[in-house]
Amino acid sequence: MKLLVTGGAGYIGGTVAGLLVDRGHQAVVFDNLSHGRQDLLPQGVEFILGELADRSHLERIFTEAKEQGSPFDGVLHFAALIEAGESMVKPEIYFRNNTASTLSLFEAMLSSGPRKLVFSSTAAVYGEPEVVPIPEDARLQPTNTYGESKLLVEHMLRWMNQIHGLRYASLRYFNVAGAPESADGGITRGEAHEPESHLIPLILDVALGRRQSIRIYGDDYPTPDGTCIRDYIHVSDLADAHLLALDALESSSRLIFNLGNGKGFSVKEVIESARRVTGHPIPAELHPRRPGDPAFLVAGSEKAIKELGWKPRYTQLDDILRTAWAWHQQRYNK
């Protein structure tokens, strides 16, 4: 298949693009490089620089591919801003980038592109959960505008499917971590955000001596150790699920799946895991809560395991941290 991967120069999108090539597909990455890294794209991936809001550019890409006799078979949509904390300070840019720009993509697809899409959604659409692990039919009530911006896209997808026949899979996941390992055990890419804001790479920065300590935002949550609990999924397991969802759209027109470990880890537990993996004491500092952070966010993924045949390989937090640590050392100790 020939697939357009929006946001494919990012951490998750790039991992999926690499897996597509490994599986014999043609991956075309579309990215504005505001957060992505073109130098980390896997070999064999075509790159197009562009803005998701530029509907005419997207239409030209789809039209030219048809005219050349090599039309796109589908789209994997990762392009988005992802920082929940920032979204509570600048909600307008999240609705513009995550919601309005995605509408431009949908319009281009309906005008001249494929009618099959896998959407990178988030467990943040659930907000403060009423049941943990969270099932796919749980109430959707985001507590931050990042989650709301993604939920609005899901609402648009439902109507695009009902009215225009756009086939889609919406994959809801939360904390993605780790680095993809090649068959020989090598690692060529991983998280590389600038500036970095995700917990695991920030913790590993401390282990490398790039930071003095890691911040814990709140220890008064209703959890066993008072810190937020999140579901961590390895990026390679996540990539596998995207390809399985793409295949499932051959026989289904609307799919929604949670993707996660099925068990949560607190901030303090993640720090302890990193101490074991790195052998570093990793000092921690306590800071006030951040607005919009739910106490528990664990996405049950039994449905994906049953219906997609998805089999996560990295189920232990230490194993996820081990690959992240290998990438982190490789990235900074050159």
Please tell me about this protein's structure.
It holds the Pfam family Epimerase. Pathway: Carbohydrate metabolism; galactose metabolism. This is UDP-glucose 4-epimerase. Keywords: Carbohydrate metabolism, Isomerase, NAD. The structure is a single chain. Helix 6 packs across helix 10. It contains 10 helices and 14 strands. It has 334 residues and is of the alpha/beta class. The chain has helices at 11-22, 55-67, 84-87, 91-112, 145-164, 199-207, 235-248, 267-278, 302-307, 317-332; strands at residues 2-6, 26-31, 46-49, 74-77, 116-122, 167-173, 175-177, 214-217, 229-230, 232-234, 254-259, 265-266, 284-287, 296-297.
List the defining traits of the structure above:
alpha/beta, single chain, three-stranded mixed β-sheet, 10 helices, 334 residues
Reconstruct the topology from this structure.
Elements: E1 2-6, H1 11-22, E2 26-31, E3 46-49, H2 55-67, E4 74-77, H3 84-87, H4 91-112, E5 116-122, H5 145-164, E6 167-173, E7 175-177, H6 199-207, E8 214-217, E9 229-230, E10 232-234, H7 235-248, E11 254-259, E12 265-266, H8 267-278, E13 284-287, E14 296-297, H9 302-307, H10 317-332
